Each structure stands twice: as structure tokens, then as C-alpha cells.
């Protein structure tokens, strides 16, 4: 009997673990946007559907497709840009399977119709795993220093603007000084690479210190020697800030250093961070530990930058070699390969109709030898680059302060029908600043940290473009913004992104535009003049229209002091500054936790079309706060608890809270 039960259990386990992940075609990113109806996405010739797939295992995965078509034909299949066996289909409606080679973690899977229209219903991917519901599916584990073992001093919690703990994740960090002090982490998973978020003091002249931090194993072996510099942190004076300490108001305290460990450290072992050769105080905020895969291999038919004279040791400038390889690949319709190495460059690269690949962002790094001397740029609108694909490398700038007159982004310009995946961008002004109009840009799996302005900005006339599964930390402005200046941005989506510590402005901001959405976001710790999510008519944007959606997200310790209006804004907020908000804004399924100011804030002139549903606000001074605006907002199933002052803080009788059903915990009012 027991044997039979065990067998049954095994069968059940096998069935459960082998059940595929089903991805609906209408939820994929269709380029160019075809009609989606009856839960089906129609691909005409040349259209593609881009799916995001998470797996826990490298290798071949069966991918099965349910479709309907009046003709026979085939779909071109690309996984992470690599061509797979095509899917050949017959006329009628059917279910058929093919194989795709996928990586551990996040993959892009492109299905491109080579013939007439095919209606895609869904795909089933075997051996795939669900993605995290909120935020990116992270390729690392994060450990806060204050939760680790240490013999230093905890600073914080403190949210006072311009205090050192206020910019730490969770508003706490650990200070260690001298080689006798350490922070020690017990690993939950094997790791071979580490990122340390830290702050060290600036020099009196603002030029910055450079020190060393050793990463030690429990037996005292050095696993990595990380260089920590304060060159890329510390900003002073008024916006957009300077490197002059005598201007006062210091902030932007933290930066990061990353390194591969010289051996893989197993789960349950410890690693220890110890200052080396310096008496400065090291403030350690957190570490991220990675289990980085082996370097990816050069695909056939790619031109390698070293064959054009690029120097992988980073000693000689490789700019001309990159130009050479890019020109040759563009002429011949082939790709560029950036092998393992650190490549010094001093200019931007213009790219169009090209694929550029690296061995992975931990192995293939393009770094700037001077500020503004880097970036991969599409042609300027109205003639955007087409069919650009960038994969698997790092772009590291030399910028130390924000200068808005300089063009300075890891990726910039205009890109239609293009895809970037698994790039790592740091120390440029913006991660990606994209000026439209352009259509159909797919951005997936990026890491953008320690930049001086926006993480990614979709600026004017960007349509049908997405940012997914990307990671943002320590930005100098909005982590993710859509700014519909002059021309509306339309039908764009920011989803499944993780955002930490934007130093100024918001996690996600939608400034005007038509039918855009932000969903499945995790955002924590906004610092100044920003909240977790914002939809506003600001900055001269074309007014919000269609349905704007902010949904399915978690917002932690957000809201911030703000020089306008009430002097602070809430964790989600709406500002009808340039014109009324009178077209639907849907705010659905949010968890707003431990807000610095109100859970939600309404500012502006007139706002009549914001609908909250299924929102929980846990711990905030007020659930909602109103300044000057007139109109109303609608609330269904909005539940507040741990409200420290009153449910509603408003001195504006002409702004009404219309509570439809299921609202509780925020009845009390104050003015
Ligand atoms: C997929 O791969 C498996 C194992 O390599 C193989 O047995 C199967 O026939 C392949 N299926 C298709 C449709 O190519
Ligand atoms: C207001 O108070 C009433 C009566 O106690 C309660 O039923 C309702 O849920 C409260 N509404 C809100 C928004 O707190």
C-alpha cells in the first residue's frame, strides 16, 4: 500500500513539475501592434510576438503553440536572439511543438510570422518557471548589511533628506572601519560574483577617494579585492548639483562595486567584507550575490572587435576597432561580437540594422575613458534605427555629475522594431534616454544602476514599446518615465521591474500620453520629490488620455519631501498641473507599505477620473492627502490600516472621495 502511495505521489510530483508555463499571446509584446481580439493575437507577415520566459535550467525546452490560420506557413523563432528551428504550421487551428534552447533566468522568445496572418492563442513552455508576480525575477539574492553579522555600527533607520542612512535601502546600513571590523553574510545560495553597495567619504576638494574592500571566505582566503571609489557619488548644491563640497547640501552618497569571486562559494558558507589599507569609514548598505553562468560563445558569422584591433585589457583605446567592426557588420548584414574583456572607448556608436552581442555583462564590458564618451545610439527620429539588437554586455560610463546639456546615455536615440536584453549600464547620465517618435522597442532584463538622471525615459511619440524584467537602483531622476512632450506616447508598458532608491523623483512616472501602463512593479525607498508611482499632466506633456493603468504593484517606504504644494508627496500621486485629469486612470491591486507621507496624493487644478480598486495602505501618516485640486476620485475595496494621523487630510471641500464599496480604515479627516 505504502509503495503504491509513494508511486502515486511520484507520478503526481512528476506531473506537477513537468507542467508547462502557459503564456497568452495577447499578453506578449506584438511588433508592430496587430489586433488582439478574443484572447488571440494576430500576426501578419513580418509581425512578431515577443514572450518573456523564466527557466531554472539551461538547455532545450519544448515550446508548444496553439494557433489558427487559413494557410500553411512558418514562424521564425529566436530565443535570446539566437535562431531556433522554425515552427511550421498547417492551415486550420492546431497545437504543435518545437524546441528552443533557453538559459537559466529570463529569456526573450520571438515568434515572427513569415507568411500571411496567423492567430496565436498561447504558447506552453516546458521546464519553465513562473516569474515573480511583482518586480523583476532577480538574477541575484540580496542581503542587507544590517541583517548580517558584523562588529561595526548600524546607522538609521532615518529618512531625513541628506542623511546618510536615508539613501540606504531600508534606510539602514552598517559602518565598519579598519581591518578589524567586518560584515559577514551567510549565503543562502551558491555564488561566484558579488555587488557591494557602499558609501565612503569624499575628499575635501570633491575629487573622491579610492580604497579597497576585501571579500574573504570563512577560512580567510581572499575571494575578491574590490576597488571602492567616491568619485561617482557625492553631489552638492542645488539641482542639477555639482562636485563642489563648498556648496553644501551633500547627498547621493552611495555607489556600487562588483567583482567575480575567484572561486564559487557554496550555500551555507560565509563571506566577509573587510576594509583594506584605509582608515576611512566604510558604510555598507547591502550585497547582491550572483551565480553567473559561464561566458556565452561567439555565434558564427559575427565579426569580433578584437579582429579589428580592440584591446580586451582596456589599456589601449578601442573606439576605432568598434567603429570598424560595426561598419563591417552593417555593410554585410552580420553581427558584432564583444568577447570577454574590458574595452576602453571614448565616443558614442551609432547603430542601425545590426546585432551586437557580448559574452555576458560580467565578462564583456565597454567602458568610457572620459565622461560622455560612450553609448549605443539609434538614429535620431524621425528616422529611427530599425532592427537593432543588443545583448549581454556592460556599458560603464565615467560620468560623475549630471550635466543636462550633454548627451550621455548608455543607450540613446530612436529605435523601431528593436530589442535590447541583458545589458548592464552604470555611471552615465541616463541609462536609456529615447527620443521618439519610434515604434516597437522591446527592452528586457536590463540592470541600470548609479546613473545621474533617469533610468529609462520614453520621450515624446514613443509607441508600442516595453520595459520588462529590469532592475534599477540609485538613479538621479525617475527610474522609469514616459514623458509625452510634444507628441503623445501611446500603448507602452513598464512591467515586472524592480526599482530601489531613486534619489530624486519617482519609481515610475507617466507624464501625459495615451493608454500607457505600469504593472507588476516593485519599488522601494523614494528619497526626494517623488513617489513609487505617478501619473500626471506635467512638464508640458500631451495630456493623459485613453486609459492609464497603474496596477499589481508593491510600493514600500515611498513618498518624499517635495518643494511644491504641501511640501511632500505620497507613495502614489497625481498632479493635474498642466491640464485636468479627466480620462480614466485605473489604480488597481496595489500594496502601499510604510509610506513616508500619504499613501496617495492628489495635486493640481482638476481631477475627476482616477479610480482606485483593491488597494491596501499599511502604515502611513494619512491614507490620502489633497492639495488645491477639485473634482473627485473613486474608491472600491481600498483598505487602510496603521494610519498614524487621519484617513484623509484635505482642506479642499471641492474634491470628493467617492467610496463605492469595501473601503475601511480611512474615515477620519483633518484639514
Ligand atoms: C525536442 O528535443 C527532444 C530532446 O532533445 C527530442 O526528443 C524531441 O524530438 C524534440 N522535439 C522536436 C519537436 O524537435
Ligand atoms: C467609515 O466608517 C463606517 C462606519 O464605521 C465603516 O463602515 C466604513 O467602512 C468606513 N469607511 C472608511 C473608508 O474607512
TrEMBL record:
Segment forming the signal sequence: 1-18
Record domain CBM6/CBM35/CBM36-like: where: 138-292
Family matches, as Pfam families: CatAgl_D1, CatAgl_D2
SUPFAM superfamilies: Pectin lyase-like (SSF51126)
Tagged with keyword Signal: yes
UniProt domain Alpha-1,3-glucanase catalytic: residue ranges: 329-618
Listed name of the protein: Uncharacterized protein
